[in-house]
Amino acid sequence: MEKKKNQDQINKIKERQSEKRVVRKIVLAASGVFIALALVLGISMYFYVNNALKPVDENATKTVKVNLPIGSSIDTISETLENKNIIKNAKVFKYYTKVKNESEFQAGTYNLTSSMTIDEIIKSLKTGKVYRTPIFTITIPEGLTLDQIAEKVEKSTNYSKKEFMDLVNSKKFIKQMKKAYPRTVTKAIDQKDIRYPLEGYLYPSTYPYFEEKPTLQEIIEPMIAQTNEVITNYSGQLKQKHLSVHKFLTFASLLEKEATAKTDRETIASVFYNRLESKMPLQTDPTVLYALGEHKSRVLYKDLEVKNPYNTYKIKGLPPGPISNAGKESLEAAINPATTEYLYFVSDKNGNNHFSKTYDEHLGKVEKYIK
């Protein structure tokens, strides 16, 4: 009887040991499955996040306007960027910025593209500027005419000067620009005496291009868009002065061609405004050269007699349109001229301007500095 009891105990011990071995196998198997799943999940998550951090379309060139109001949270910013197709995943963008400890994004309107990297987008939102590495750039200096800008583009691209001029003067392109920038490109450019409708509307700046072979329109339109953006800053002052955008650009273009220094611009602007108010012709030499269509170092007396709507020795008031592109300093002087009683000025051989209130005083300075 005692033997049987011992045997039963031995059997129970063996059963428990067997059960433990089975449990260990099950735990090991389960652990293996869990580790495998975790590994698969981790790899999948890695590729998912890595893919979400890549540009939506590396070849995209079209810019998308993205407005981020003041007080926008990271959630709002992330969702806005995803909705505009600038990023692939709002949540990934949100957590990426937190991991990188990126914050203090600036409110504003941005022209972003789907080809930008996450880091480029973050850098742009933190500084208020759009950062990308361009394939090439084109620099347009102040005071250039459309002809001269066309030559700059011809040297930097495969497009000829003729192709450039054909596009900026085409009715279809001009109509598109009017529709895209209605407050800046207005019907004022349609006047019959205007040589080139978009003369003076291509802002001087350095323009980056992110595609190896952008279309000619993609090269030119940013220059007009920049003019529109700059002009918007003066909208309140223009309204207050009852000055149209076209006349503003025209006036500023005269200063750009006449001035040799920042201070001169404001004083020359006062001379022009004083002459306009007195119903006197502006009599500025750069308009004569524009009328002649020539680049000359000196204007002759016979040149002053040319019959042309741009010749301000023959017409009163402003010419029909700009004679060049004006930079910021000339725009500032045009809207904020100096307060003077000057009606005349003459430039000496060193490029210094000398101002006079009367014609006799002016003649004396011409005798002193020119002859």
TrEMBL record:
<protein>
    <recommendedName>
        <fullName>Endolytic murein transglycosylase</fullName>
        <ecNumber>4.2.2.29</ecNumber>
    </recommendedName>
</protein>
<keyword id="KW-0812">Transmembrane</keyword>
<feature type="transmembrane region" description="Helical">
    <location>
        <begin position="26"/>
        <end position="49"/>
    </location>
</feature>
<comment type="function">
    <text>Functions as a peptidoglycan terminase that cleaves nascent peptidoglycan strands endolytically to terminate their elongation.</text>
</comment>
<dbReference type="GO" id="GO:0008932">
    <property type="term" value="F:lytic endotransglycosylase activity"/>
</dbReference>
<keyword id="KW-1133">Transmembrane helix</keyword>
<dbReference type="GO" id="GO:0005886">
    <property type="term" value="C:plasma membrane"/>
</dbReference>
<comment type="similarity">
    <text>Belongs to the transglycosylase MltG family.</text>
</comment>
<keyword id="KW-0456">Lyase</keyword>
<dbReference type="GO" id="GO:0009252">
    <property type="term" value="P:peptidoglycan biosynthetic process"/>
</dbReference>
<dbReference type="GO" id="GO:0071555">
    <property type="term" value="P:cell wall organization"/>
</dbReference>
<keyword id="KW-0961">Cell wall biogenesis/degradation</keyword>
<dbReference type="Pfam" id="PF02618">
    <property type="entry name" value="YceG"/>
</dbReference>
<dbReference type="InterPro" id="IPR003770">
    <property type="entry name" value="MLTG-like"/>
</dbReference>
<keyword id="KW-0472">Membrane</keyword>
<feature type="site" description="Important for catalytic activity">
    <location>
        <position position="258"/>
    </location>
</feature>
<keyword id="KW-1003">Cell membrane</keyword>
